[in-house]
Amino acid sequence: MSAHTQTLSEAEVQSDAPNLFGSGRSYEVRTFGCQMNVHDSERMAGSLEAAGFHEAAAGEEADVIVINTCAVRENADNKLYGTLGHLAEKKREKPGMQIAVGGCLAQKDQSGIVERAPWVDVVFGTHNMGSLPTLLERSRHNQQAEVEILEALEVFPSTLPTKRESTYSGWVSISVGCNNTCTFCIVPSLRGKEKDRRPGDILREVEALVDDGALEVTLLGQNVNTYGVEFGDRGAFGKLLRAAGDIEGLERIRFTSPHPAAFTDDVIDAMAETPSVMPQLHMPLQSGSDSILKAMRRSYRSEKFLGILDRVREKIPHAAITTDIIVGFPGETEQDFEDTLEVVRKARFASAYTFQYSIRPGTPAATMPDQVPKEIVQERFERLVALQDDMSWQENKRQLGRDVEVLIATGEGRKNEDTHRVSGRAQDGRLVHVGLAEGQEPPRPGDVMNATVSDARPFFLIADPQSPEGFPVRRTRAGDAYDRAQAESCGAPTPASAASGPVSLGLPIRLRDQ
């Protein structure tokens, strides 16, 4: 642990909350990184509001800026310190402004952040998010930076207050940490060994989200399908999916991300037999080369990976399967890369999130021999992207004429006002831009439209109506919750196309223009 003063327990932090030492002060949380970070940011915002802070209005310079960092890729450092450099000038212009840095990079760099950026007021890690309000007050009172990094999780983050970004879709963390030792990944050293929540606690949180209006929940874990290992039930994840499927009012269940080595047939059966579990699977491949998978310490091989996809498609024929792939891992030969391309052809991914390998200090891969030259990595990356974009387009064209149920979302369509469309996700997670009939009232975020796919592009589908009545809209509890949230924020209800900020439904966020 690194701290300028003694560490507060989470219980002590909560007991301090009624002091409301943030009263009258505004905050902004900026999130870098994965879905887990997005969820963590909701906890940070909830803790701040419980202490009396309020979210800064659009265009307002916040009194407190919190940066929730990622440490997975090479540019994470550059992104953080570039942002901090920009904020240094703003802080000079705004007396009393505070800057806090949390998340994985804070857990890794600790007091080094204050050494590089001495205008930062608070640094906190992945294990003590609930301490944020108290650390801010302590820094303001003592007029010095506060650095508090815990080496182990004391209280599960889901016990903290939450300010959700969406009224219709929610994140629920079922585990934190990871027991794997992938040679390219720094996450286990920053988030610790896997810790699992009790099933009853998870289901109660899901029920609470549904009671608040949510139609959709995404279950989160570093390796979501190893859930239960801590309390000795290797079938716990499939059981959890089935139990969540029994919750009345919950229409869509998603999860991310599973590990291929632990993906078992009981989970496939639970997906196929539970109507509210969506026909979508995000399964990280990382490489199609067995020798590279071995070097990565990924405890599966390409044949096993493809076998899982075959069994999923046998039980769930219309499942959309997406993946993550790393190009240029140390020692990757041209043949290794060709093996990856061949697996991509066979897998028929709906989409893939492709990354160029970058060295992360502290990981075994960082010191491996045969680091691949940047120009070779770039050339291979471009070939992979071209192949996958073509595969995505082929898979999307197979959706032409299909009827889809679209949950209308905010921020998914950049040109909706010009095209007279609204946007959202189909049950399989595909982005769909749905046309409105002339004079048709736009649905609210959280409402559902039943539409027919009329056109396909590599990164989205289009469903334009063929009749003057347009596609039917089902008004939902989630849409009602959206209206209530708008009213409580002193804003009139707005069409889906006018709202801001994408909501990722269990996948990394990737927006494309229509």
UniProtKB/TrEMBL annotation:
- Region: Disordered, residue numbers: 1-20, 464-514
Q: Does the keyword 4Fe-4S apply?
A: yes
Biased composition regions of type Low complexity, renumbered to the chain: 489-504
Q: Which PROSITE patterns match?
A: MTTASE_N, MTTASE_RADICAL, RADICAL_SAM, TRAM
Q: Which cofactor does it need?
A: [4Fe-4S] cluster
Function description: Catalyzes the methylthiolation of N6-(dimethylallyl)adenosine (i(6)A), leading to the formation of 2-methylthio-N6-(dimethylallyl)adenosine (ms(2)i(6)A) at position 37 in tRNAs that read codons beginning with uridine.
Task: From the Swiss-Prot or TrEMBL record, give the protein name.
Answer: tRNA-2-methylthio-N(6)-dimethylallyladenosine synthase
Organism of derivation: Pontimonas salivibrio
Lineage, uppermost ranks: Bacteria, Bacillati, Actinomycetota, Actinomycetes, Micrococcales
